[in-house]
Amino acid sequence: MAAKKNKRLKTDDPAPNPHRVRLPGFLLEEEVGLGDALKRVTYALGIKACGGCEKRAATLNRWMTFTR
Asked: Is residue 68 included in any domain, yes or no?
């Protein structure tokens, strides 16, 4: 078996730009992060938010945003 290398994130590196997905005519706002979109969907379904939900939303917002 090959040994797996541990990949550690460097804290000194700046955060990479999020992947941007264009959704023309779909968004009313300028930009919406993936985490914010999921937060709205779960709220509409009646799921209560917790502290972990805020961390998840922030992480997903760094990964992907929707633009028009």
From this structure: yes
Structure tokens at 20: 């941007």
- 42-64: buried (b, 16+ CB within 10 Å) or exposed (e) per residue? eeeeeeeeeeebeebbeebbbee
Give residue-wise pLDDT tens across range 7-60.
Answer: 555 555 566 787 787 777 666 667 888 898 899 899 999 998 888 889 999 999
Q: Is residue 18 part of a domain?
A: no
Query: 4: which 2 tokens?
Result: 């797996």
The reply to whether 4 falls in a domain is no
Domain containing 50 equals 34-68
- Say how many domains are in the chain: 1
Question: What pTM was estimated for this model as a whole?
Answer: 0.62
